[in-house]
Amino acid sequence: MDNILEINELNAGYGRSHILFDVYLSVEKGSICSILGPNGSGKSTVLKSIFGLTSIYSGSIVFKGMDITGMKPHKIAQLGIAYLPQVDSVYLNLSVRENLIMAGYTLPKGEVEERVKYVCEVFPILKKYMERRVITLSGGERQILAMAMALMRQPSLIMLDEPTAHLAPKIAVQIFDKIRELNREYGITIILVEQNVKGALEISDKAYLLVSGRINYCGSSKELINHKDFGRLFLGLQQA
Fold first, then answer.
1. H helices within 25-157, ranges in order?
2. Both 63 and 115 in a single domain?
3. Residues 107 and 134 in one domain
4. Are strands 3-14 and 17-28 parallel, antiparallel or unpaired?
């Protein structure tokens, strides 16, 4: 299977604050890849670096064979990468419909309504909320809307930053099920940053463990979840 994304020896951060050190990553087309690690390990910075939101000191990021290192976020979005940050991924004071229309701003005018219908078929729960302001929705419903907004742009790769954060366990399971559905039924490649380690590993094919800005494990999600020294690996007390 071809790699849709490759990161090589990436050193990145924010201004003079160096966060990632020689990070490497390869994501196969049509797979789910998890990036895990303790708080402050640099997981979100990996996603932001891919999306052009950090300072890149060295290394490369290649998407579908194209070097996108340091490219502007709007250009990266146009190539087919969608990024859902942990916060501020929806417009609270707009309706669900208005959020979806905003998400389709790069599409030709005639396609927007068709895409709205399409994402409502993928996420049928949204149909009954179309005219409601997003601020009235639950956390799980907002997360579903955020995924629908990403789907409006017809991405081939979606990056999700802790999509189950602050959600009740039952709702978190539903979000994981939807992520798996986007991947298995719609062929979208997923990169998933999560604190819910067990949930992420259960739906992903490959996992990277990031500790203090460096990769401490790369391999099968199944192997990692069953690793006898997983706790020590996760805390950086042992190298895989």
1. 43-50, 73-79, 96-103, 109-122, 139-152
2. no
3. yes
4. antiparallel
**Is the C-alpha dihedral spanning 123, 141, 107, 98 positive or negative?**
positive
Number of domains in the chain: 2
- What pLDDT score was predicted for residue 240? 55
Return the structure tokens found at 119. 């994402």
Give the per-residue pLDDT at 237.
57
In this prediction the pTM is 0.91
In the chain, which stretches have pLDDT less than 50? none
Q: Are residues 135 and 121 in the same domain?
A: yes
| Same-domain status, 51 and 25 | yes
- Can you tell me whether residue 174 is helix, strand or coil? helix
Give the Cα separation of 52 and 69 in Å (integer): 7
The CA distances from residue 70 to 102, 114, 196, in Å, are: 25, 33, 30
Instruction: State residue 225's pLDDT score.
Output: 80
> Does residue 226 share a domain with residue 189?
yes
96-120 burial by CB neighbour count: b if 16+ within 10 A, else e? beebbbebbeebeeeebeebbeebb
Return the SS3 of 27. strand
The pLDDT score that the predictor gives to residue 1 is 58
Integer angstrom CA distances of residue 25 from 3, 50, 81, 187: 10, 11, 16, 20
Which backbone phi and psi does 235 adopt, to 5 degrees?
-90, -5
- Tell me which of 127, 154, 181 is where a domain ends: 154
Q: What is the pLDDT of residues 128-159, one digit of tens each?
A: 999 999 999 999 999 999 999 999 988 999 99
